[in-house]
Each structure stands twice: as structure tokens, then as C-alpha cells.
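Question: Hello, beginner here. Any chance you could explain the protein record under this note? Any guidance would be welcome.
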Amino acid sequence: MIHRDQLVAACDHQLRAAEFKDFTINGLQIAGHEQVKRIMTGVTACQALLDEAVAWQADMVLVHHGYFWKNEPVAITGMKQRRLKRCLIMILACWRITCPWMRMQRWGITRNWPDALAGK
């Protein structure tokens, strides 16, 4: 188990998230539980991934495509409302990255994240 903020700091540092300007927030988008035991990774924080994460009892999802995109409507309705509601009700954290993830060879959707975070 790891504290969410410690995990977020490790991800932000390893992927140098602050160095990239993107169309949305790189890093933690939804706080979720403070203690993280299980993490599910995926490409998009879609409803199916969130439902699987909840069924699998994940505490956090690490995704390539998250939420709060520039130029999208700010109103939380429809699909966005359903997805955010799922995260908030189940206290599921969402951390997303785009540019740094694509740039770095040692990271990727199929990479063993615990080993990568440990520098292996």
C-alpha cells in the first residue's frame, strides 16, 4: 500500500509531467482514496474502464486520456457526469498523462509500472 500523494509525486517526477503543456491537466485529476493498494491502467478513462476498476476494487486508474480537456464544455452533464460520478462515489482516483508518457521509452501502457516507478 502507498499513500496517494507519494504515488502521484513519484509519477509526476518520473514522467516529468510539469515540463509539458497539454490540452488538459497532466497528473492527478481526481483525488480518490488516500491509501492506494490496487491500480488499474488503461488508455482512456471511459465508463467501461471505470466499471472494471470498481469491480476489480482498484483505488486508482492511471490513464493516457483523462478529463477536463481544453475547449470542451465545462458543464458536467451526460457522459462526463456519469464518469465523474462513478469516480467520486467509489472514491476512485484518476491520474492521467499524455505527452510525457508518449515521449519516454521506458514507460507505456504495457509496462510494469511498479518496476518502472522503482527505476528498474
User: Anything to note?
Assistant: DSSP finds five helices and six strands in the chain. The mean pLDDT is 81. The longest strand covers residues 39-44.
